[in-house]
Amino acid sequence: MSSTDALARPLSIAVDIGGTFTDITIQDAASGRAWTAKTPSTPHDPSEAFLTGVRLALEAAEGAAAGVGRVLHGTTVATNMILEGKGAKAALVTTAGFRHVLDIGRQDIPRRVNLHAWVKPERPVPPARVFEVTERVSAQGEVLVPLDEASVRAAAEACRAAGVSAVAVCLLHAFTAPEHERRVAEMLRAALPGIAVTASSDVLPVVREYERSLATILNAQVMPAVSTYVQRLERRLQGEGVAAPLLLMKSNGGVAGATAIRRAPAVTALSGPAAGVVGARAIAAAAGFPDIITVDIGGTSADICLMKGGEIRLTQTGHIGDWPLPLPMVDMVTIGAGGGSLARVTPAGALAVGPESAGAVPGPACYGRGGTHATVTDAHVALGHLPPRLLGGRMTLDVAAARQAVQDNVAAPLGLDLHAAARGILAIADSNMVGAVRVVSVERGHDPRDFALVPFGGAGPLHGCALADLLGIRTVLVPPSPGVLCAQGLLAADLKAEFSRSLSDATPEAVEAGYAALEEEAAAWFAEEQVPPARRETRRVALMRYAGQGGELAVAWPGDMDAAATAFAARHKALYGFDLPEGTVELVTLRLEAVGQLSGSITAPLPPGRGAEPIGHHTVHFAGGTQEAALYDRAALRAGDRFAGPAIVTQLDATTLVPPGWEARMDASGALVLRRQENAR
């Protein structure tokens, strides 16, 4: 059954596995109703939490497995393997004379390290496992040296002797003429049964040998484990009677079927935050806000992304750990600031927050699990921003422990009172996040005041208004279920893939022929995913640069080089403050973005309300003094309900703080719209 045919079945299940909790959302397309749940993650075997999530979803919806049309999944299996260096033992097969490309790498050194103390990280494949084959293709695709198949057989024997379980094939200039590389991969698969073999022309067929080699190696290293994991999920779903297709989240903000993921699992690396961005876009669009800045604040980190006109921009300059991973991914910035970030006083007497985190165990002191260090969450508790009971009453916060942690670790060493110390912790955490927001906005030619802020994640809605005040933003949009938005975002994602080809000569004929070839690849992908023609979309993109530059900018291809050069110059000026009217513009790489529409929706209209009624009051300590804040139950709010701060909105997955000077309104889309009052500042 195809992923689009499955739309005829009403139930869609989304499972997003995090480091501490697994979030589950199930939606009934017939009624528009949705249910959410959380279950502890199972790091030893993520499929256990996945299956528990599926069962919880079906129980919550009182649905039958036969009614499930889609199962969508966000996983960190590939990400964790790469970050922890636990990928399969791999070899690299490359063109004779170029075996040290990987080891040489680039000359750039991370800014955060000391120039003299920095040691180049050990490559994922050492030189001893880099094997050469005799062949040579020019940058224009001309065969200079025919492929010597005897050298390929020798490389296969070397791989077998090295005891590898994965092989990456990356030949010089294979992005221009992949025939040699594909033949090498074919021969290796035949000679090495049971060993994962991947070719760069199937992973990243673009210029830059080092980055292309790395991407291919990382893909090969995670291929065995991800393939096994996906197959296990499919078997377990079938065992539960769920015959729906399994779709997995990609770093580009789309999903893909299990077959495509098994072939190129590296596309799932860093995909976790992408689902939240997709969900935020859907919520904001339903509420009428096309220009947004998203801030996803979890326990250890904050992910920030900017969207203008509802467009999620992609980048191919991403990194994972020590390695560049130039696969298309959502353009965002991540910093070590979250609810579990530790607050401490440095030897110099300064207050610092993060990037170290208390983690899930023991966690913040207020969790009552033995933690004694002050965290951002403890600061919120000390100030009264969080009510004593969370998760629908299933979790009781240890307020005394939170206050003691802030007092011992921050207030006493700095000679401050408890509340001033707690406010200082939050001020530094907020300042760190504001700096990241400016990276995606001001540094890229955007004024953050022209955008609405969308905070989500378990801690996001606690910081939304404070961040907006620091940035001059007057509107904050809190999603209906901010704590599980990454799971919900899976339901809003479409099938998505990118196809790229680098050019050595960008003549009009070569450009058109290149795009035509990419469209053929996209058509084959659409067919594999069984996407009907009416649900197919493609978009031509050009990666361009000024002559002499080392990086490219992506612009929509307008149809001819002159118009593309004009669009490139405008984007260059918006990002960097200048253009080069006399400079030569080069078209380096063609990219085709393909989308298979799944018509997912995560919003449902709310009925009109009769006025918001508080369920109680809670003492909160603000900078201006102590006030009684009204408590509201998010589940009881309806369209049009309004109330002014100070207020606290509670729900199962998150808590929203509405400070004095802000007012809240429930939108018919289900989003909570917070605005700074005109006479307040």
Automatic annotation (TrEMBL):
Acetophenone carboxylase-like C-terminal domain mapped to chain residues: 615-671
Pfam families: Hydant_A_C, Hydant_A_N, Hydantoinase_A
GO MF, one annotated term: 5-oxoprolinase (ATP-hydrolyzing) activity
A single cellular component GO annotation: cytosol
InterPro entries tied to this protein: ACX-like_C (IPR049517), ATPase_NBD (IPR043129), Hydant_A_N (IPR008040), Hydantoinase_A (IPR002821), Oxoprolinase-like (IPR045079)
Positions of the Hydantoinase A/oxoprolinase domain: 214-498
Highest taxon above the source species: Bacteria
Domain Hydantoinase/oxoprolinase N-terminal: 13-190
Biological process, per Gene Ontology: glutathione metabolic process
Annotated PANTHER family: 5-OXOPROLINASE RELATED, HYPOTHETICAL 5-OXOPROLINASE (EUROFUNG)-RELATED
Protein name: Hydantoinase/oxoprolinase family protein
Species for this entry: Teichococcus coralli
